[in-house]
What we know:
4 copies of one chain form a homotetramer. With 123 residues, the first copy, chain A, is mainly β. Chain A has a single domain (6-122), classed as TM1070-like (Hypothetical Protein Tm1070, Chain: A, Sandwich), CATH 2.60.290. The first copy, chain A, is built from no helices and 8 strands. The first copy, chain A, has strands at 6-11, 30-37, 43-51, 57-64, 68-73, 89-107, 114-119, 121-122. In chain A, strands 1, 2, 3, 4, 5, 6, 7 and 8 form an 8-stranded antiparallel sheet that branches. In chain A, strand 3 (43-51) and strand 4 form a beta hairpin. The two termini of chain A are 22 Å apart. Chains in contact: A-B, A-C, A-D, B-C, B-D, C-D. The B-C interface holds B 1, 4-5, 22, 26-27, 32, 34-36, 38, 67-71, 100-102, 104, 106, 111-119, 122 and C 8, 10-15, 17, 48, 50-53, 55-56, 86, 88-90, 92, 103, 105, 107, 109-112, 114-121, 123.
Amino acid sequence: MDSMGRRRWAIAEGYIPSQSTGPAPAMTSHETACLLNTGERDAHVELTLFFKDREPAGPYRVTVPARRTLHLRFNDLQEPEPVPRDTDYASVLVSDEPIVVQHTRLDSRQAENALMTTIAFSE
Amino acid sequence: MDSMGRRRWAIAEGYIPSQSTGPAPAMTSHETACLLNTGERDAHVELTLFFKDREPAGPYRVTVPARRTLHLRFNDLQEPEPVPRDTDYASVLVSDEPIVVQHTRLDSRQAENALMTTIAFSE
Amino acid sequence: MDSMGRRRWAIAEGYIPSQSTGPAPAMTSHETACLLNTGERDAHVELTLFFKDREPAGPYRVTVPARRTLHLRFNDLQEPEPVPRDTDYASVLVSDEPIVVQHTRLDSRQAENALMTTIAFSE
Amino acid sequence: MDSMGRRRWAIAEGYIPSQSTGPAPAMTSHETACLLNTGERDAHVELTLFFKDREPAGPYRVTVPARRTLHLRFNDLQEPEPVPRDTDYASVLVSDEPIVVQHTRLDSRQAENALMTTIAFSE
Lengths: 123, 123, 123, 123
C-alpha cells in the first residue's frame, strides 16, 4: 500500500491524571498517540512536549515500522524524562516518513471511565 | 446531491475491548467506521487493518450503496479473518467513489458506557 | 468579523438512542449539529439525512442569523419528518454562506452520560 | 522548532454546565481551548464568543508565550464579561502567530465524568 499521511503533527491537549480506577494497565488513566505507518519504510518519529511554564522536553524517539501501527502511551515515555502527571502539556510529532496520528485519553479518575479522541492536527 | 468526500481514509486508533456491560448488541463494546456515500453510484470500499507486530489483514470488502450510509462495526468483520479483541490496530479505507468516514467507539467495559468519535483522516 | 468556514459539511455518524436517564431536556439522549455563522449575512442551511436502507429525508431548513450560533438538536427536527430513534443515519448540510459545523452526541442510555464530539467534514 | 499551525480557529460547540460532581477545580464541569505555540515569538490571541440570541462578546485577550501551551478554561474568562453557564455558545480565536487549537469539555453533571475533544476548525 502507498504511504499515507503527513510528517508534522500536533496535539494541543495533554493531561495524564495521576488517579485511576480499575485494573492496570487497561483502565489506568492514560493518553495515547496512535501512529500509523502504511508505507514500505520505517518511520522515525521525534516527539517534543510543551508545557505552560517551562521549556519543552524531548525529543523522545520512537520508530513505527513499515506497515505497522504503534499506540504510544505518553505514560510510558521515560527518555529523556517521564511525563509529569496532573500537568497540562501539548505535543508535536515530526516523522521522516508520512504517518497518521490520532490522539486519545482514557480517564478513570472516577469509577466509570471516560474516553475522548481526535485526529491530530497536521500540515 | 453531488458526491462528497474523498477516496482514501485512515483511522489510527483501533481497539475492541473483549468485555462489555449491558444488553447486546447496542451496548456491546464496539468500534465503528461510519461511511457516507452521497453520490449517485455505489461505492466499493476496501478496508485494511494494521497491527503492532504482524502483517496487515485484509482487504475486507464492503459496498456503500448510492445515497446511503453504512455504519460498519469492526466487530462484525469476518472475511478474510475476524478482528482480534483487546488488540491495538489501525485501519485504512480505499473507495472507488468519494465517501466520508467517521470513527466511533462505544466502550462498556465498566458499568457506564463511554463514547468517542472523530472524522477520520483523508487525503 | 469576517465570515469563516465552508458551505458544504458532512457528518457520517448519526444515532439518537430512544432511551435516556436524567432530567429532560438537558440529559435527554441527543445529537446536535452546532452551527456557527461569524459573517454579516444570515446563513440559510439545508440539511439532508441519509439512511442505511431507504432514500434520503429532507431537506430540513434552518437559518443561522448573522453573528450567531445555532446548536441544532436532530431530536427536534419535524419537517418534513422526525428523525427515527435507534436508527443509523448520516447528514449533509449545505449553506448559502460560510459556516462552521461541529457534531456532538450526549448519550444517557445508562445512568451516567457519555459525550462525544468532532468538527464535521467540510470541502 | 518552527512555528506550526494557523491564525484563525473556530469552535462551534460551547456549553458550560452549571452543575458539577467531584472535587474542584479538577472535576468541575468545564470547557477548555488548548492553545499550542511552537514558535519563537509570543502569540497574542483574541477570542470572541457567539451566542444564539445576542451580539457576540469580547474580545477576550490571552497570550501564549513562545514554545508554550496554554489550556484556557472558558470558565475562567472574566474580561470583558464571564461566560454564562447553561448557555449555548461558540468561539473564534484569532492569533497574530500560528497556533494549534484543540477543544475539550469535561462534564461532571452526573456522578461519573464524561469527556469529549476535537481539533478545532482552522482556515
